[in-house]
Amino acid sequence: MQTLNNVHQQFAEFFKSETLKPFAFLVSKKLSEGHICIQVNDAALELEESAFFDAKTVFRNIAKLQEEPLVTTSNGPKQPFVLHNSRLYLQRYFNYETAILKRIKAFVESEKGLFEKRAQQLSSHAAFIRSLFNSAAANENALSGENIDWQLVAAISAVLNNFTIITGGPGTGKTTTVAKVLAILYTLNPDLKVALVAPTGKAAMRMAESLKSSSLNVASDIKEKLQAVTPATIHRLLKYVPDTPYFKHNKENPLNYDVVIVDESSMIDVALFAKLLDATGPETKLVLLGDRDQLASVEAGSLFGDLCRSQSALEFLSPERAAVINSFIAESERQLPPDYFLKSAPHLLSENIIELKKSHRFTSDKGIGKFSKAIIKNDLEGLKEYIENDQDEQVTIDTQYAPELFEKFVEGYAEYIREPDIKKALQKLGQLRVLCAVREGEQGLYSLNTAIENYLRKKKLLDKRSEYYENRPIIVTRNYYSLDLFNGDIGIIRADENGVLKAWFEDSNKELKSVLPGYIAESETVFAMTIHKSQGSEYDKVLVVLPDNTNVRILTRELLYTAVTRPKSKVIVQASEAVILQTAEGVVERASGIMERFDE
User: Fold this and answer.
1) Helices (H), 229-352
2) What does the domain layout of the chain look like in residue ranges?
3) Whether pLDDT at 29 is above 60
4) In which element (H, E) is residue 29 found?
5) At what angle do helices 150-160 and 174-188 cross, to 10 degrees?
6) What pLDDT sits at residue 145?
7) What string of DSSP letters covers 500-534?
8) Which chain positions lie within coiled-coil regions (predicted)?
């Protein structure tokens, strides 16, 4: 920690002004923690225990900050720092935030003039649209007692809007909804150009696979179009220029797509999102998918969560929009009720953010569904119920870190090791995973991977004689564009027919491809992986191992929620009661001006 503080101190020392130095230190420190700005009024409190600065002096200097030559305002000359509404930014991050807000406002403004035309287009295909939702709506209503079909609301909104956010937990039907959105859009425009992207290659591929396996009852030509959509990472879509912060696609060279769909949007940092918006043409429709309760991006910003929190998702609709949505619902009891109508929307994005509320994967009264809900709501009694009662088939809490429980789970890796078919072995490897919060320490990534390797060697399942040993599972940790391999891709080391050890992966078409391990030097063993890396993936079973230490800053509600919602059928959590309860209380709150600046 002292080394990190020294980095921020060195940044502060770059500036001669004694008034500015503590604020520069704090901006640098907070940026490394994911904040894109600081609240200057909190600076003295933040620096109370600082070895470098006197908090009382910092407090007195708050009023002087606006007089600093290197501090400008939103409309002032370009300087390293921007002071805006008591928030201090580095100029670059203020520009990112400003550009994002400006582009979103332009999206929303441009869609107003298209509402009537799009509503008429939808009306002309009413029978087709109703056929897309009837069976799904009936199923959802039967399971939840919820009359409103939120997938229908989201799909119609996405067609009417130029900018749409669809948020929802695992299994709420985000991918199904997108398939229906595209089916409608392809019906309206058979020549539609669609980009399907995500922050990681794994997440993008999963989305494309879901579209390909969609069971929608649509014409064969539309089904073919859905299956033909090619996934990409955001970096690949924008055409990243290596060793620079730039992309080939930008405002001057925008993307040539009618629709851009972004999955796992909570993983996108503020800089990348600004560049994506910058490259999105004025006629392009943008749809963001994600779970607002999941972990935010590794880099600065929590943009998706900020946007979702900027107003309560779709609490109000204009009567005109509600009428369009209700026109596709025959039964009056399932139509949007009058309390969803409002003459003037209370917020710019009131009709652009839709939350899917019903999970088709988990039930809310037991198992992973109930457990994850208790985490998000910080329901301590509900969490204690799981900790003290080992009766749930889907959730097991082990507060003692029992070695036998760990070993029994790890034995599941024998399935892929014993599978001779490489493609099937990759699929079996993807059915389970050990997830951890940190990289160092007894419950960290390196120790866990070593422990798993040693146990499997003891069971004579592995023969580790070199770094790249037979059946070693690996995860790529950077993008290798020339190899079509991306950060987060997972493969297996196995010998080919000539006895040459290679790393084997599945491509976006589920076909095998192999590369020599030396070409992907930036890769790691992946029996265990960090929870951050697991975002955008799902497994059948997961073992979550948390540090036996409550003083780990990374332990947050969002981290635990993300971990326990990765599996479809079983989660085991090895952590003390104190760690679980304290983790559920810890909330990621990253400073930004997104929520407040919409009204500017």
Assistant:
1) 234-238, 270-279, 303-309, 319-326
2) 7-84, 94-361, 367-585
3) yes
4) helix 21-32
5) 40
6) 39
7) -EEEEEE-TTS-EEEE-GGGG-SEEE-SEEEHHHH
8) none
pLDDT for 451-504, tens place per residue? Answer: 999 999 999 999 887 788 999 999 999 878 788 888 888 999 999 999 999 999
- pLDDT of amino acid 143: 40
Q: For residue 513, name the pLDDT band (cuts at 50, 70, 90).
A: very high
Which range (267-276, 301-310, 494-503, 512-521) has the least confidence? 301-310
Which residues touch 86 (CB under 8 Å, ≥6 apart)? 39, 40, 41
| DSSP string over 97-158 | HHHHHHHHHHHHHHHHTTHHHHHHHHHTTHHHHHHHHHHHHHHHHHHH---S-HHHHHHHHH
Q: For residues 249 and 276, is the Cβ–Cβ distance under 8 A?
A: no
Binding-site residues, in ranges, read 168-175
Q: Per-residue pLDDT tens for 46-55?
A: 888 777 888 8
Q: Which of 574, 586, 480, 490 is nearest to 538 (CA)?
A: 490
Residue 378 has which token pair? 């910080």
Nearest to 17 by CA among 74, 80, 86: 80
CATH architecture for residues 94-361: 3-Layer(aba) Sandwich (3.40)
Nearest Cα residue to 441 out of 547, 525, 527: 547
Q: What is the sign, positive or negative, of the torsion defined by CA atoms of 132, 257, 273, 535?
A: positive
- Indicate the residue type of 163: F
pLDDT at position 553: 82
Tokens for 111? 């869609």
Find all residues with CB under 8 Å of 587, minimum gap 6, and list them.
Answer: 556, 557, 558
Q: Could you give the 3-state DSSP secondary structure of residue 448?
A: helix
Reported residue count of the chain is 600
Burial of 14: CB neighbours in 10 Å, binned 0-12, 13-18, 19+: exposed
pLDDT surpassing 50 at residue 101: yes
pLDDT at 142: 38
Contacts of 312 (CB under 8 A, 6+ apart): none
Nearest to 353 by CA among 403, 409, 311, 298: 311
Helical packing angle, 201-212 and 220-228, nearest 10°: 170
Amino acid at 133: F
Q: What is the domain class of 367-585 according to CATH?
A: alpha beta
Going by C-alpha positions, the residue among 277, 281, 270 that lies closest to residue 303 is 270
